[in-house]
Amino acid sequence: MAAPYRLLVTILTPVMRLLVLVPTERAAWAMAALAPVALVIAATALGAWVVAPVIGGVLLGLVVLDALLAGRSAGWAIHPPADVEVGQPASLAISARFTGGRQRNVKAALACDPRLAEGGRINIALAPEVAEPGWRGETLITANRRGTAPVTQAWLCWEGPLGLGARQISYPLEQAIRIWPDLSPVRSKDMQTFLRNNQTGLIARRIRGEGTQFEALSEYEPGMDRRRIDWKASARHTRLYARENESERNNQIVFAFDCGQAMCEAVDGLPRIDRAVSAALTCAYVALKGGDKCALFGFARRPQLFTPFITETRAFHRLQSAAAGLDYEAAEPNFTLALATLTAKLKRRSLVVVFSDFTDPTSAELMVESLGRLANKHLVLFVTIADAEVEALITAPPGDIATLARAVTADTLAQQRKLVLNRLRRMGIDVIEAPWAKIGPQLIDRYFLIKNSEAIG
After folding, report:
1. What gap in Å lies between CA 416 and CA 324, rounded to an integer?
2. CB–CB of 160/104 below 8 Å?
3. CA-CA distances (angstroms) from residue 280 to 21, 51, 181, 199, 455?
4. In terms of Cα–Cα distance, which of 30, 91, 38, 105 is closest to 63?
5. 350 Cβ partners below 8 Å, 6+ apart?
6. Whole-structure pTM value
7. How do 430-434 and 379-385 pair as beta strands?
8. Measured between alpha carbons, how far is 169 from 158 in angstroms, rounded to an integer?
9. Quick one: DSSP state of residue 144?
10. Residue 65 Cα distances to 24, 58, 74, 170, angstroms
11. N or C: more exposed end of the chain, with fewer CB within 10 A?
12. At what angle do helices 401-426 and 361-375 cross, to 10 degrees?
């Protein structure tokens, strides 16, 4: 099918270029079907050879006539979203109007950045609108990486009533779609309900009963935790008094992202760094609601960014904008330079949440040493995404020798990974290793556990 269609386009396109007319796939099939007929006529009746070019001319005339019957374009518009979030579907629509003629099989195509569509091309089929004249088509696009994705060219093609000829128009575009980190966990109903219930009465009073920072003494009442009884104060007053502690607030929390090669690898269709950014921004939003300060730090071969500390949720969009600027680098990260730079910038003890990944103990050696130096001055939480592919290889049924060999290799890698994580734990570094869908909730739980234990300040 492709060869006759290319041949027909090569023959007819120069003739129709000024008319913006093109033959359709049906015309190509018709030409392919007429070729054997012309061959039989030439073989059986040499004097009737003229019939073949006549039939070809008639087909050419039908193609041109059908394209003219398709009418003209009266205007068309593209409605792309200005902003999308990585991994989340967004709607892109095209509308078109025509004057005269009868149209069928109206299609549009857009040339765009490959992060919006595989191959950098978006195809949309248009259908007649019910409420008003015109045609409209809509499709869903899902970005697979953050950044700015340009849309550079647009095509619109519509066929005539016979389906032999079509009109096609195109023009360059100068539009761009901004791709932001995924904040769908922050907007979820469960998260909003949790935050609303957790912050009840925050402005009216201090949060007491959590943490270890002493706030006041109150008379002991039945039902209170007996471990809160202050025995020295009770002895002085000959009555039982309990301590009321104030929850720790105004902590500094830094989310540090390894933007190197390992974090650029995809997990369930999205790079690990994008999964980490989504979990970090969700935890940052919760931390800001709790009265703490948050900042982002990104690095690969060298530090990429370090944002100022954000102190309120009204400025949360600054963290989102900064996270959108984290670049992907297919290179090994320089942990020594990055974490030394971060240590020099932090003037007080902070909680540093490091998102990174590694493949073997050798590549993780510099990371472990740098994290150990960072843990001497700050509280460090190391977060890594569990490798589902390795787990699948380990649990695969050993049907043949090759499968068994892959399972043994994967199990060796998993054991080496556990050795590195256990080494981090022995150094006093807290570790979270979980599938990407559970990283966010586990990070929030660990943040509250650290905050309530007064371990940061």
Report:
1. 33
2. yes
3. 53, 74, 10, 20, 20
4. 30
5. 251, 252, 253, 254, 378, 379, 456
6. 0.75
7. parallel
8. 9
9. S
10. 13, 10, 20, 21
11. N
12. 20
Q: Tokens for 313, please give them.
A: 């949720």
**Token pair belonging to 232:** 């020295």
The more confident residue out of 217 and 350 is 350
Lookup result for tokens 């009465």: 201
Give 384-420 pLDDT, tens digit per residue.
998 877 777 878 887 788 888 888 887 888 888 889 9
Sequence-distant (≥ 6) Cβ neighbours of residue 314 within 8 angstroms:
none
Check: CB of residue 289 under 8 Å from CB of residue 200. Answer: no
> What digits encode the pLDDT tens for the residues 16-75?
444 477 788 887 887 777 777 767 766 676 666 666 677 778 878 888 888 888 888 888
The domains located in the chain, with CATH, are: 2-69 (no CATH), 72-180 (2.60.40.10), 208-246 (no CATH), 249-452 (3.40.50.410)
Q: What is the CA radius of gyration of the chain?
A: 33
Tokens of 161: 């009533």
Give the tens place of pLDDT for each residue, 220-258. 777 666 667 777 878 887 788 777 665 556 889 999 999
Owner of token pair 């890594």: 384
- Do 185 and 168 meet the contact criterion of CB atoms below 8 Å apart? no
Both tokens of 375, joined, read: 């843990």
Structure tokens at 289: 């609601």
Tokens of 34: 């007429």
